[in-house]
Amino acid sequence: MPPQVPLPPLATLLSVSLCCLIHTSVLVFDLSAFHFTLSPREIIYLFPQPDLYRLLTSPYFHGSLVHLGMNMMSTTYLSSILERKFGTLPMLHLILALTLLVSSLHTLISFLTYVNPFYSTQKFMLEQSLGYSGVIFTFAILETATSAVQRRSVYGFFEVPTQLYPWVLLILIQIIMPNISFLGHLSGILVGTLIVNGVLDKPIFPSPEFFRYIEEETRLVGKIRNHELYVKVPDNFKGISKENEDATNSLFALLIKLFRVVEKLVRNVVEAILVISGVGGRGNAGSQAPVRSTEMTARNAAIAAERRALMTDQG
């Protein structure tokens, strides 16, 4: 009897199932995904009745089975890791929030590239995009920010520092597949960076105590929290931002955080480009000595230990 593949946690399973169900409906009923894509022009300029629903629908529609399959494999891996760290209820909230945030930022950047007086372009305003990859890139930023692994392998060719990994993937994927939505992926990275640096976490994410209260006091959640796929909010979960200990909420503190985010973004982009080109950077593939077998074994053991810890029952 072949070994059974374990199901992902509940919030991850629901999001993957929703994407699969929607794509199946498109194929069976011959629906047109055009009416559900993220189209900044349709959202902004169809006043007084803009297609705001596109902000919600576009991530859950996909252009093909290959597109769906690649996105869902990435979602299952990254979302499962985050859900076991955060809990099912916070993960459900996070998925809904990211759906709106990534689509909204994508639309805002498209509009700014069109109306700015320095270099105006209609390219992004007229673009029709769909798929879960923007949210996936936010997941990647959150996962790397909470991971103990210091370096990641890029398709087995070279290694980069963990915090550069999403940026290197962004650039490489765009080089390999230039017709995909660069702005959609970039929006996901930007949202994730703003969250982990404490700019967006408090406005969009209630405290862990709130989720624990909902788990204990709400009848609906109480009925499903004992399900084997439900992950209770861990006792050591303090929030999704690395800046949780910073109690300052003044405008000046927010501006300082934004400055640090911009500085980090510029540094990561430059270093990612240097890594890919082989010129230099902390993850220089061109000058990096081959990893010895003992070092590789130790690193693989660390990764395996982290994954086993994540799989431990949180209840």
Keywords for this structure?
315 residues; 3% strand; mainly alpha; transmembrane; transmembrane helix; Rhomboid-like fold; hydrolase; disordered C terminus; two-stranded antiparallel ribbon
What would you note in describing this structure?
It is a multi-pass membrane protein. It is found in: Membrane. It comes from Triparma laevis f. longispina. Its main location: membrane. Belongs to the peptidase S54 family. The longest helix has 28 residues. The protein has a single domain, classed as Rhomboid-like fold (Up-down Bundle), CATH 1.20.1540. The C terminus is likely disordered. Helix 1 packs antiparallel against helix 4, helix 1 crosses helix 5 and helix 8 packs antiparallel against helix 9. The chain is globular and about 55 Å long. About 35% of the residues are buried. Strands 1-2 form a two-stranded antiparallel ribbon. With about 325 residues, it is mainly α. It is built from 14 helices and two strands; from the N terminus they run H-H-H-H-H-H-H-E-E-H-H-H-H-H-H-H.
Report the average pLDDT across residues.
82
The first-to-last residue Cα distance is 30 Å
C-alpha Rg (nearest Å): 20 Å
CATH architecture name? Up-down Bundle
Q: What series of H and E elements makes up the topology?
A: HHHHHHHEEHHHHHHH
Number of helices in the DSSP assignment: 14
Q: Could you give a short account of the major beta sheet?
A: 2 strands, antiparallel
- The neighbouring-strand order within the major sheet is 1-2
Per CATH, the class reads Mainly Alpha
CATH superfamily: Rhomboid-like
In total, the number of strands is: 2
> Uncertain segments of ≥5 residues (pLDDT<50)?
244-248, 283-298, 309-315
What share of the residues does DSSP label as strand, in percent?
under 5%
Label the structural class.
mainly alpha
> How many domains make up the 3D coordinates?
1
Topology-level CATH name:
Rhomboid-like fold
Helix content: 55-70%
Shape category: globular
